[in-house]
Amino acid sequence: MKHFIILWFTILNLAGCALGPDYKRPHVIPPASYKTPPPHWKFAKPGDHHPRGMWWEIFNDIQLNALVQQVSISNQNIHSSEAQYRQALALVNAARARHFPVISGTFANTRGQGTAATNSGVTIPGIPRSGITETNRLLATISWEADLWGRIGRTVESNQAAAEASAADLQSALLSIQSLLVQTYFQLRINDIQRQLLEQTAIAYQKSLKITQNRYSAGIAGRSDVVQAETQLKAIQAQALDLGVERAQFEHAIAVLIGKSPSNFTLKPSTVVPVLPELPPGFPSELLERRPDIAAAERRVQAANAQIGVTQAAFFPSLILGASTGYQSSVLADLLSSSQQIWSIGPNIAVALFDGGLRASQKEQAIALYNKSVADYRQTVLTGFQEVEDQLSTLRILSEEAKVQQAAKLAAQESVMLFHNQYKAGTVSYLNVVTAQASALDAEIRSLSITGRSLVASAILLKALGGDWRSASLPM
């Protein structure tokens, strides 16, 4: 018993050891600032556990708010990611269970034929030399693997980091689908406004056609003017109808994103333009910390790092302490009598002496996986910087373009009015009117396109930042 106690304390001391490198977050060199203002940025640790807020509410669209809130409830990709996260949690619990002893109970009844005589010819009393024997055994067994080299602890660490990465994947999937829904919704609404514009333009062209027909009937205008006016009207009507194809696809995409069948979902047209949020003069640096894809990549590095320790521990012997107690008898009625009691206790040490390089190869594989995960993490960080930079530049350039396009639209509208009056006065041909009207319509469509692209870029920027950029949504 004294030797057993000494062995026990020695095992407990060794169990505190863990092979393999302790985890350190890979170093990433961040840019000093973004090319596009605001420049007040710093590289920060992943903080995807921070709340992102209901970031889509920044666009002040009630119908959009209702749609986005259905994503986390009904979207099947989110359900899949959530199930994967629960699977990762189960793996963590399975790894932690190996820290505890395993207790099992068995009952066995065996019959066999053989001989009880020894090599010297001496027969064991009470047992026939040959014949059928019956043995009944009732045992309770306990076994516990001592984590001498930290193999179990590193496995728990690896699985826990993988579960945290899976949780970040779930948040990343949710954020991506929400962002995709917001972008699709903006495109659908711009489509609605463009269709309304074309319908209003068709009404104006219809009036122009009527005027031209009257002038033709009066002998003031030629037949070619009437043909041009009819061609222009039909082209606009066809263009308005063609927008229906695109709108139907947008509507179907939204239905799938909120987990509904496209045949059971309808979104009524609306000509209300969502509010384009203004960029603040400076973003809080904590915003980029909330990107779940960066957090997931970083935690996969930690999981791969722990696996190196698991493979290193395989080079050392494993120690399993076991004990059993119970009863054994050839007569079932006498099985539980004290005279039939048996017990055993003792350690079991095992080590692989030769495996043809298997363990060394597994360690090299773990190191290579770690190096890959480090590179993936750094690439994810760089991609995050790129995405933010892209959308900041896009919004800045589109803002400047919108001002120029607004001036072009006003000039085109004035040109239509001037040429139309000149045509009525008979100083210019109808071709001038058609050209001016086409230019004005093109300017209107371009202006709407810039608005739509700006809304989509804002949604992508919010996704790139990990959520809402309003400081009120951040933890104090």
Automatic annotation (TrEMBL):
The keyword tRNA processing does not apply. It is a lipid-anchor. SUPFAM superfamilies: Outer membrane efflux proteins (OEP). It is found in: Cell membrane. It comes from the Bacteria. Its main location: membrane. One of its GO terms (molecular function) is efflux transmembrane transporter activity. Pfam families: OEP. Signal peptide: none annotated. Belongs to the outer membrane factor (OMF) (TC 1.B.17) family. This is Outer membrane protein.
